[in-house]
Amino acid sequence: MKNILIQLDTDSLPSTFDRVVAVDAGADELFSYGGVSPDNVESLVHGAIFTRKPSDLMHTAIYVGGSNVAAGEALYKKVLKTLFGPFSVSVMMDSNGSNTTAAATVLAAAKHLDLTQTTAVVLAGTGPVGCRVAQLLLSQGATVRLASRSIENSRATCEMLVKAADTAKLTAYESASAEGMAAATNGVQLVVAAGAAGAQLISAEQFSAISTLKLAIDLNAVSPAGIAGVEVMDKAKDRNGLLCYGAVGVGGTKMKIHHACIRRLFESNDQRLETTAIFDLGRSLS
User: Fold this and answer.
1) C-alpha triplet 123, 272, 108: angle, nearest 5°
2) Rounded distance between C-alpha atoms, residue 74 and residue 4, angstroms
3) Residue-number span of the structural domain to which 234 is assigned
4) 165-181: pLDDT as tens digits
5) Does 102 share its domain with 179?
6) Is residue 269 domain-resident?
7) In this predicted structure, what is the pLDDT of residue 61?
8) Are 244 and 219 in contact (CB under 8 A)?
């Protein structure tokens, strides 16, 4: 029986990136739908679960994607709510690559640092990747400073993370001012920049002032770099005694995790692959 992956994308045009990965990961058939929302997804889910007998539903799976992570989360919840009893299929949510990228980032950090003894700052921590990086770092015992240009947004994200992680070691910071950036980065061993493409989050002067820094990870693939001095191809690159990762350096692990997740979907009909489960799967690969 063929393994069918049903791609539900919240954008009007389903992501070609996600489609290529699905094929390369071994999906036999790929059904792609764009413009999917919680309001119109029910019939698509019913079509997935009622066309094969329950014992064969491990060969059908759903992938939720799109550029809008909040829309993807809402769609993922609706899909799970529509499944019931033996009429269930495995589901993965990775809108904008947020979960697989965050998992790869924290796994890269764990190669070089004892995260239980690490203080990390996540710049642009209110974004879809940044908040997930913070969540996963917390889950591994790190002390996390979540920074953004707005302290109100940072605090709101920290409050949101209470639902997903132990936030006793999480603190909100603002990074728009020189004073705020200095406070957020003072004494940290790890800096992760998870900002929008082409947005420099920390200058070379601010970066070089962090005397305790051991590892820098910049997830921005578009010039200028999010962390001045880190290059997109860096992969554990030693730059004056500091290890650096750029977006492509992290991207190889992200792709391995993404492929493994697609394969995992067809191992049973009850896989639920979101932030924590995707990280756990990625850790099992190393």
Assistant:
1) 35
2) 23
3) 98-250
4) 999 999 999 999 999 99
5) yes
6) no
7) 98
8) no
